[in-house]
Design brief:
alpha+beta, Aldehyde Dehydrogenase, Chain A, domain 1, four-stranded antiparallel sheet, 6 helices, 17 strands, rod-shaped
Length: about 300
């Protein structure tokens, strides 16, 4: 008669290479066929789970476990041999714990998966392509230099017999948006030109009428419009002297540089001015005391050009 195999249930669990008690204590392992107690086993908690995960993470990060292929292969084969050496005990344990018919344990319940479950990945270690040469790769980055400026400008003043300045008070007109994605680092500058302000045969002087500065409260302000990075940028270094006088002409007016950025700066998306900025873009017109009443128009052109 074959001697019955004695099954011993381990009441502890292994974490970080040590047998430890479950933080929640133990629970009774029940034979589903007889509903009899077959032993006490560790009752793991969330904290036990975290300790096990942390131990595995440390082994992966602080040792060569993740890259030492031969060590992993040897451990897998050792585990296979250890399980095989206690296969009879495992068979009885399966029968007691899950009510498995004995015949099935010689097939899909135990013997079949054990045959190749650990040996297959151990063999795969020798043939798996652990490294792949991707060759030299080139990242191609292209971009452009763009400008968003006001679509129209507006001034309003009441003639009073004195020279006076009028500023565009529309909030959306008090900023420029420049995005230098060209990758050249050459710098850039903004130019403004305008035709003579004309109303029914009357004109405003070409010289001294049209002015830009970094203020909406003073036409003589010497401040530059505030520069703010939209996301990530190299802040612009502006070399312009303010205020900037823009000389108009009846035709082919000469552009005036109103913001001049040095090479190596102003890279990325930048906002210049803004109605809530400390120094908004101030579009000014100087109205002479002898101006005639009327609605004066001018064709204003704003451009951004690469290079300082």
């Amino acid at each position: 008669m074959t001697e019955a195999v004695k099954v011993r249930f381990e009441p502890k669990m292994m974490i970080d290479g040590k047998l430890v008690d479950g933080q929640a204590g133990t629970f009774t392992n029940i034979n589903p066929a007889t509903e009899e107690s077959i032993g006490e086993v560790a009752d793991a908690s969330k904290e036990d789970m975290r300790r096990a995960i942390d131990a595995a993470r440390r082994a992966f990060d602080e040792t060569d476990w993740s890259t030492n292929h031969k060590l992993r292969q040897r451990c897998l084969l050792q585990l296979h041999e250890a399980i095989e050496s206690e296969i009879d005990e495992l068979r009885e344990e399966l029968i007691l714990e899950v009510g498995s018919p004995r015949a099935i344990t010689f097939g899909p319940q135990l013997d079949a998966p054990l045959e190749d479950g650990l040996k297959y990945p151990a063999r795969l270690i020798d043939t798996y392509p652990w490294e792949t040469d991707l060759g030299d790769k080139v990242i191609s980055l292209t971009g452009t230099l763009t400008l968003t400026s006001p679509s129209s400008l507006a001034w309003s003043a009441t003639l009073n017999g004195s020279n006076q300045g009028a500023v565009d008070t529309v909030a959306t007109n008090q900023q420029f948006s420049v995005s230098d994605q060209s990758g050249s680092g050459a710098g850039w500058h903004i130019t403004v030109s305008g035709t003579t302000f004309t109303s029914s045969g009357h004109t405003l002087p070409n010289s001294g009428t049209f002015v830009l500065t970094g203020s909406v409260t003073s036409v003589t302000a010497t401040t530059a419009p505030t520069a703010t990075c939209v996301t990530s940028c190299t802040p612009p270094t502006d070399t312009t002297t303010y205020p900037v006088a823009i000389t108009t002409a009846t035709s082919s007016p000469t552009p005036a540089t109103v913001y001049d950025v040095s090479a190596g700066s102003g890279i990325g998306p930048v906002t210049l001015g803004g109605s809530s900025a400390a120094n908004p873009v101030g579009w000014w017109t100087d109205i002479p005391a002898n101006a005639r009443s009327g609605s004066y128009t001018s064709t204003v052109t704003v451009e951004v050009v690469s290079g300082p």
